[in-house]
């Protein structure tokens, strides 16, 4: 309706109860359906002339390589995790397309424009290590880190049993029963809480939240296509392995507890809280309340165990608790509207008038929007100041030695240093002290179209480069081809290139260390929806499926 008629939406998630109070394209009848498909249908209903292409997938999937990104004129991010943001930023740098970056957290939000070689990119400024907001759909369905389990235990389970239920409607909506499995699971918990004085309450509650509700999730096959499936736990399975469910075991706050000890703590703390709730109708979570802390910590650890996440000590969980900022529908709408206005300026060739816009509600000043000029690229940024190349190869036959030799032969074009390391994420594939992988094919090293390899010079003062693996062009008759991003092909001067190889000295002591880094990925390195105005293509990425969520809404 704002002039864009060709839109591609990407989102892996399905619609949850918690989405309905702030995502107005969705209705209760849509619960359980893919967000991208329902959103596309809703938009098409409002503007039948628009061409909307929904994709139910992860934006980091291999098919979305640099060549795919190049088909768009602009991208808009609405992501909720740092890793995916960094990935899209890098791919837009490689494809040289502008990116509209957005984010909200409660009553604050921002949007900015990222353009290769013109403005700073997402990586130009350091990012906070710890997240402050968390996606509800991830917390409820697919936790991938302990913080997700802590959020679930504190703001969902504890609050629903002992706190003010109305404050957590985004997690549980028990009105108007529906056939949806997720609604029924939520209603069952709500009814169960009404029987809190039942002598078997702890048995029933445990089986409900750690057993039957997990079974409901297992029935959503799409969630587990690329994830480890959770394991259901039931109360009776612990009775023979724990000495008592009524007394609290002795433990150290800094000790990482096993699952049996967590079960004992869960039972004893629940009993204490239930007893207190008969006197005080509402119990607010307080990290200094030992009963509340033990219940939340044990619940989080049990849930982590179910999803294959390493357990943490109560001391660590105490530090994690309390980091939730709710998503506000009006904040999301304001930032989305500003992002569209920014996109219109970009596709109209008016990027010079774009600003970084901040929204904040409250405070002493009667002003909600603040504008700042777009900043220039950080000359020391390892992402936007790097060179980007497209790597096309027969990945099943080309060996790592061929690629390394190619880079060495054309080192003056590709890498600024004669000595370099080749990495995939945090995994070392090659450096002068680690050559074990050289005889292996790229495919055997899990290098496929969509993989991004970083070339890191040993001289820290030199800029690095990125190789974006893409599908072979049918017209390319070379076994290995590297092109500058933007289709400026390197002058290899040879059809089937056999690059000159150089002898690389190795240190025996360093080889084992590098081998461990290659296997474990422990080395430190740089982390790594279509609209149209005229002929302009716009990619809108809504997918959010990774861990380490930061500074975004929870969708």
UniProtKB/TrEMBL annotation:
Zn(2+) binds at residues 121, 124, 381, 384. Residues 2-382 form the THIF-type NAD/FAD binding fold domain. ATP binds at residues 11, 19-22, 35, 80-85. It comes from the Eukaryota. It holds the Pfam family ThiF. Pathway: Protein modification; protein sumoylation. InterPro entries: ThiF/MoeB/HesA, ThiF_NAD_FAD-bd, Ub-E1_IAD_1, Ub_act_enz_dom_a_sf, Uba2, Ubiquitin-activating_enz, UBQ-activ_enz_E1_Cys_AS. PROSITE patterns: UBIQUITIN_ACTIVAT_2 (PS00865). It comes from Smittium simulii. One of its GO terms (molecular function) is metal ion binding. Keywords: ATP-binding, Metal-binding, Nucleotide-binding, Ubl conjugation pathway, Zinc. Heterodimer. Residues 502-555 are annotated as: Disordered. Residues 522-533 have a biased composition (Low complexity). Belongs to the ubiquitin-activating E1 family. Residues 545-555 have a biased composition (Polar residues). The lineage of its organism: Eukaryota, Fungi, Fungi incertae sedis, Zoopagomycota, Kickxellomycotina. The active site is at residue 137. One of its GO terms (cellular component) is cytoplasm. This is Ubiquitin-activating enzyme E1-like. GO terms for biological process: protein sumoylation. Residues 502-517 have a biased composition (Basic and acidic residues).
């Amino acid at each position: 309706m704002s002039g864009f008629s060709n839109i591609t939406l990407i989102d892996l998630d399905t619609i949850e109860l918690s989405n309905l109070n702030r995502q107005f394209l969705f209705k209760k009848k849509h619960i359980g359906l893919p967000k991208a498909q329902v959103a596309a249908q809703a938009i098409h209903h409002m503007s039948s002339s628009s061409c909307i292409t929904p994709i139910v997938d992860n934006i980091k999937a291999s098919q979305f390589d640099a060549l795919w990104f190049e088909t768009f004129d602009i991208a808009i991010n609405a992501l909720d995790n740092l890793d995916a943001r960094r990935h899209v930023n890098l791919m837009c740098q490689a494809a040289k397309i502008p990116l509209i970056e957005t984010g909200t957290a409660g009553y604050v939000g921002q949007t900015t424009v990222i353009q290769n070689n013109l403005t700073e990119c997402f990586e130009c400024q350091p990012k906070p290590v710890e997240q402050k907001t968390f996606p509800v759909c991830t917390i409820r369905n697919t936790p991938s880190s302990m913080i997700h389990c802590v959020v679930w235990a504190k703001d969902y389970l504890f609050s629903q049993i002992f706190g003010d239920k109305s404050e957590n409607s985004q997690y549980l909506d028990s009105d108007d029963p529906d056939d949806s499995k997720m609604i029924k699971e939520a209603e069952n918990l709500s009814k169960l809480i009404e029987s809190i004085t039942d002598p078997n309450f702890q048995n029933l509650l445990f089986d409900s939240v750690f057993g039957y509700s997990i079974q409901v999730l297992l029935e959503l096959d799409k969630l587990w296509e690329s994830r480890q499936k959770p394991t259901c736990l039931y109360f009776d399975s612990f009775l023979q392995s724990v000495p008592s469910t009524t007394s609290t075991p002795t433990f150290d706050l800094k000790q990482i507890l096993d699952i049996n000890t967590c079960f004992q703590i869960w039972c004893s703390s629940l009993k204490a809280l239930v007893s207190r709730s008969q006197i005080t109708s509402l119990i607010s979570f307080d990290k200094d309340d030992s009963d509340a802390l033990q219940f939340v910590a044990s619940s989080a650890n049990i849930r982590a165990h179910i999803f294959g996440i390493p357990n943490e000590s109560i001391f660590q969980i105490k530090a994690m608790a309390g980091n939730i900022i709710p998503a506000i529908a009006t904040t999301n709408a304001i930032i989305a509207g500003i992002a569209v206005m920014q996109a219109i300026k970009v596709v109209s060739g008016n990027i010079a008038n774009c600003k970084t816009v901040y929204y904040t509600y409250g405070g002493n000043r009667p002003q909600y929007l603040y504008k700042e000029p777009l900043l220039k690229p950080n000359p020391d940024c390892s992402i936007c100041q790097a060179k980007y190349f497209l790597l096309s190869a027969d990945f099943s036959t080309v060996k790592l030695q061929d690629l390394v030799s190619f880079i060495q032969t054309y080192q003056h074009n590709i890498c600024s240093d004669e000595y370099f390391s080749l990495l995939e994420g945090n995994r070392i594939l090659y450096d002068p002290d680690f050559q074990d992988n050289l005889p292996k094919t790229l495919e055997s090293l899990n290098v496929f179209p969509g993989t991004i390899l970083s070339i890191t010079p040993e001289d820290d003062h030199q800029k690095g480069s990125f190789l974006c693996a893409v599908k072979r062009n049918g017209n390319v008759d070379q076994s290995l081809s590297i092109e500058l991003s933007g289709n400026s092909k390197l002058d290899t001067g040879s059809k089937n290139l056999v690059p000159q190889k150089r002898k690389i000295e190795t240190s025996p002591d360093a080889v084992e260390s590098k081998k461990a880094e290659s296997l474990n990925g422990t080395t430190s390195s740089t982390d790594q929806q279509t609209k149209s105005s005229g002929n302009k293509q716009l990619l809108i990425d809504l997918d959010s499926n990774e861990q380490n969520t930061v500074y975004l809404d929870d969708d």
